[in-house]
Design brief:
The protein is α/β, with parallel strands linked by helices. Helix 1 packs antiparallel against helix 9 and helix 9 packs across helix 10. 39% of the residues lie in helices and 22% in strands. The longest helix is centred in the middle third of the chain and has 21 residues. The strands form 7 sheets. The protein has an 8-stranded mixed beta sheet, sandwiched between helices. The protein folds into 3 domains: 280 residues, 3-Layer(aba) Sandwich (Rossmann fold), CATH 3.40.50; 200 residues, Luciferase, domain 3 (Roll); 148 residues, GMP Synthetase, Chain A, domain 3. It has 22 helices and 28 strands. The protein is globular.
C-alpha cells in the first residue's frame, strides 16, 4: 500500500507509468495475441520499441503536443500500441467504438478536431474515407495493419508509420522522449464520448493524473480487499478498450504492475481464447456472465441424470454459501470454504466441486482469481448462483466520467446485491432524490468543449451527478437501484425501478431480454424476447414443425444464436404458456404496483446491429421504445 501511495505521488503521466514498467519488467511478457493464425507473446521491451516507432511516426506526420488523435479499432494488441504511441507523442487519445455509425464518427472527429484517425482494419478505414470530406480537420487515416497497400494518398499503414518513425529516430533518437517528458499530470490524456442528456454525444475529458489516479485507487482498493495485483497476473481482454472500464482495469492497471495482457482473437472465440490465455483476471458484462452460466447449466441439465447432479450440487453450494456468509452478509472469497463446514458437508462439497463446480472453473481457463462483472447491473440471483459454485465473481460500478470503477467488490468481503465502500480517494453522498453524487481522484472536471453539459453534471459545490440512484448500508457498502432516467413514475405517483423487475428474469430458461415500460401510465407492462434457442429445441422435441426459412441466426459472443423467429413460433401455445408462467413467477416476487400487468412477446432479439444494444451489451431503452412504439401502444389500449 505504501508503494501505491508513492506511485500516485511520483508518477503523474501515462508514459512515465509505462516506462517505469519497461525499466523494471522489460523482459517480462506484456501481450499475448493471435498473429498469422497462432498465438505469440511480446515483452515490455518489444512493446516499447513498437510504440516509440509509431509515436515518432506521428511526430513525423506533424502531430503537435495536445492534439487529439481518434482511435477506432477492435480490442487487440494494435489498439494498445496505438494508444501508447499517441500518449508518448503527446497527443490525446479519442476512442471511437468500431461499431459506431458514420454520423457518430463525423461528430466525434469534428468535435475533437482530430488530425488523424487510427483505423483497426481496412473496413473501418474505408468507412472513414467515405465521409472524410465531411471531416475538415482530418488529414490522414492510419490503418493498424502491416502492408495494407493503400492507393489513397490520405491513407498510410502501420508499416509506413513505423518507417517514418525509424527515420525520425535515426535523426533524433530523443524525439519521442523529449515530448513525453514534457507532459504534466494536468495535460489531457484522453476523451471518451458517451450519450448526453439530449442523446447527442458528449466527451469526458480525462487528464494524465485522472488516469494514473484511477488505476492506482483501484489497485489500492483491491489490496484492501485481500488481493494485490502483480507481474504474475494475466488479464483476458475482450470487452471494448474504447470503454473506460476495460481500458483501465484489463489494460492500464496490468501495465502498471508489469502483468501480461492476453487478447481474445474475437468475441466469437471467447471460450477457445480463454483456454489458451489462462487468465487470472477477467472482466465481463453481466449479459456475458448470464450467457456463460446458462450455457454451463444447460450442458449439465440436458438429460435427467445431469439435471439431478447439477441440482444436488447447487443445493450443497447454497448450504456452503450460507455457512461462509458472515453476520454482516459478507463472504470471504479468499478463504478456503471448508474451514466453515462440518465433516459431512465437507465431503459433499468436495464431491460437488469435483463433479460440477470445477468444470466451470476449468472452462474459464483454470487459473482465475479475479473475475469481475461490470458495465451494467449484476442481478443478485445470478451473482448468488456463481458464488454457490465456488466461483469468486465480483461486482463493480463506475462511469466513464469517474475513469471506471469507484465501488467494486472486495474479494475478502463480498456482499450479494451490494458493491463495496468507495475506492480510496473518492467520496460519495446521496442527493435528496437518492442520486449518487461523487468527487475525488479520477472524477472529471468538465466535458470536452461542452460547457452546457458540464453545468448540468455538477452541483453548485462541485459534486458530480452520476445519474444513478443508490443506497448505502451500515458498512458504507453501495447498492445501485437503477439509472435515474430509467426510474418509472406511474400516474399514481409510485416510483418503479425497471432494473429490479428485469433482474428477476435472470437465469430464466424461457425469457432472454426484457424492457419494462409504464412511465405516466396506470400500470407496468413489458416487451419480452423469449430464449429462442431453448424454446425451439422444446418445440422440435414435441414434434412441432418449425419454418426454418423464417429463422435468423447470428454469432453472439462465440455462440450461434437464433435472433429472429416466424409468427408460428411466437404464437405457439407452449411458448405462450412458458412465458406466461415466467411472468407469473416474477410477479410473485414483486409488490402489486411493480407487477407486470400486460406484456407482448417480440419475434426478434435486441442486437447491436439493430442499434438496440450498446457495444458493452446494455439495452438502449429509448431506441427499443421507438422501434416498438406500436407494440407499446397496444399494451395500453
Amino acid at each position: 500500500m505504501d508503494m501505491l501511495d508513492q506511485f500516485l505521488e511520483k508518477v503523474h503521466t501515462m508514459p512515465r507509468m509505462f516506462y517505469n514498467t519497461v525499466e523494471t519488467f522489460g523482459e517480462r511478457p506484456a501481450m499475448k495475441f493471435k498473429m498469422d493464425g497462432a498465438y505469440t507473446t511480446i515483452t515490455y521491451r518489444d512493446f516499447a520499441d513498437i510504440i516509440e516507432e509509431m509515436g515518432a511516426g506521428l511526430l513525423s506526420l506533424g502531430l503537435k503536443k495536445g492534439t487529439p488523435v481518434c482511435l477506432m479499432a477492435a480490442t487487440s494488441a494494435p489498439w494498445g500500441w496505438a494508444d501508447f504511441a499517441i500518449q508518448v507523442a503527446g497527443g490525446i487519445t479519442v476512442t471511437i467504438y468500431p461499431t459506431l455509425s458514420a454520423e457518430e464518427i463525423i461528430f466525434i472527429v469534428n468535435h475533437s478536431e482530430a488530425q488523424y484517425l487510427m483505423a483497426g482494419d481496412a473496413n473501418i478505414a474505408e468507412r472513414a474515407l467515405s465521409v472524410m470530406d465531411k471531416m475538415p480537420s482530418l488529414e490522414k487515416v492510419i490503418v493498424l495493419q502491416r502492408d495494407y497497400g493503400a492507393k489513397d494518398y490520405r491513407v498510410i499503414d502501420l508499416s509506413e508509420l513505423r518507417l517514418l518513425g525509424r527515420n525520425l529516430l535515426t535523426e533524433n533518437p530523443d524525439a519521442v522522449k523529449e515530448v513525453w517528458q514534457s507532459l504534466t499530470g494536468s495535460d489531457p490524456s484522453g476523451v471518451i464520448y458517451t450519450s448526453g442528456t439530449t442523446g447527442e454525444l458528449k466527451g469526458s475529458l480525462l487528464t494524465h493524473q485522472d488516469m494514473i489516479g484511477s488505476l492506482t485507487r483501484s489497485l489500492k482498493h483491491m489490496t484492501i480487499g485481500g488481493y494485490s495485483a502483480t507481474y504474475e497476473d494475466v488479464a483476458f481482454s475482450l470487452l471494448p478498450l474504447a470503454h473506460i472500464w476495460e481500458r483501465n482495469n484489463s489494460y492500464l492497471a496490468m501495465i502498471a504492475v508489469g502483468a501480461c495482457i492476453g487478447f481474445a482473437e474475437k468475441p466469437t472465440t471467447l471460450l477457445q481464447d480463454i483456454q489458451e490465455i489462462k487468465p487470472t483476471w477477467v472482466l465481463l458484462v453481466p449479459r456475458l456472465w448470464d450467457r456463460i452460466y446458462n450455457a454451463f447449466r444447460g450442458a449439465f441439465t440436458s438429460n435427467e441424470e445431469g439435471k439431478k447432479l447439477f441440482d444436488w450440487a447447487m443445493k450443497i453450494g447454497e448450504e456452503v454459501l450460507q455457512r461462509r456468509t458472515g453476520a454482516n452478509g459478507a463472504v470471504d472469497l479468499t478463504a478456503n470454504p471448508e474451514q466453515f463446514l462440518d465433516e459431512k458437508l465437507t465431503v459433499d462439497f468436495r464431491k460437488a466441486n469435483e463433479m460440477v463446480f470445477a468444470q466451470l472453473y476449468n472452462m474459464m481457463g483454470g487459473h482465475l482469481k479475479i473475475p469481475y462483472s461490470g458495465g451494467a447491473f449484476l442481478p443478485p440471483d445470478l451473482h448468488r448462483s456463481y458464488l454457490k459454485m465456488n466461483f469468486p465473481l465480483l461486482n463493480g460500478w463506475g462511469l466513464t466520467e469517474t475513469a471506471a470503477g469507484i465501488s467494486h467488490g472486495y474479494p475478502n468481503a463480498t456482499k450479494i446485491g451490494w458493491l463495496s465502500p468507495m475506492v480510496p480517494g473518492v467520496e460519495a453522498r446521496l442527493d435528496e432524490d437518492g442520486e449518487i453524487l461523487v468527487r475525488g481522484i479520477g472524477v472529471i472536471r468538465e466535458y470536452y468543449k461542452n460547457p452546457a453539459e458540464t453545468a448540468l453534471a455538477f452541483t453548485a459545490d462541485g459534486w458530480f451527478r452520476t445519474g444513478d440512484i443508490g443506497e448505502f448500508d451500515e458498512d458504507k457498502y453501495l447498492r445501485i437501484v437503477d439509472r435515474k432516467k430509467y426510474i418509472i413514475v406511474l400516474d399514481t405517483g409510485k416510483n418503479v425501478a425497471p432494473a429490479r423487475i428485469e433482474s428477476k428474469f435472470t437465469g430464466s430458461l424461457f425469457v432472454e431480454q426484457v424492457v419494462i415500460v409504464g412511465n405516466d401510465r396506470k400500470y407496468i407492462s413489458a416487451l419480452i424476447v423469449p430464449a429462442f434457442d431453448y424454446l425451439l429445441y422444446l418445440l422440435k422435441e414435441k414434434g412441432f414443425e418449425v419454418d426454418e426459412a423464417a429463422l435468423e441466426y447470428a454469432n453472439i459472443n462465440g455462440i450461434d444464436t437464433c435472433i429472429k423467429v416466424g409468427p408460428e413460433v411466437i404464437n405457439h401455445p407452449l411458448l405462450k404458456e412458458l412465458v406466461d408462467a415466467e411472468v407469473g413467477r416474477v410477479n410473485s416476487l414483486l409488490e402489486d404496483y411493480e407487477q407486470i400487468k400486460r406484456y407482448v412477446i417480440l419475434p426478434r432479439k435486441f442486437t447491436e446491429a439493430s442499434g438496440e444494444m450498446t457495444p458493452t451489451l446494455k439495452i438502449k431503452n429509448r431506441v427499443v421504445l421507438e422501434n416498438f412504439a406500436d407494440e407499446v401502444k397496444s399494451l395500453y389500449q
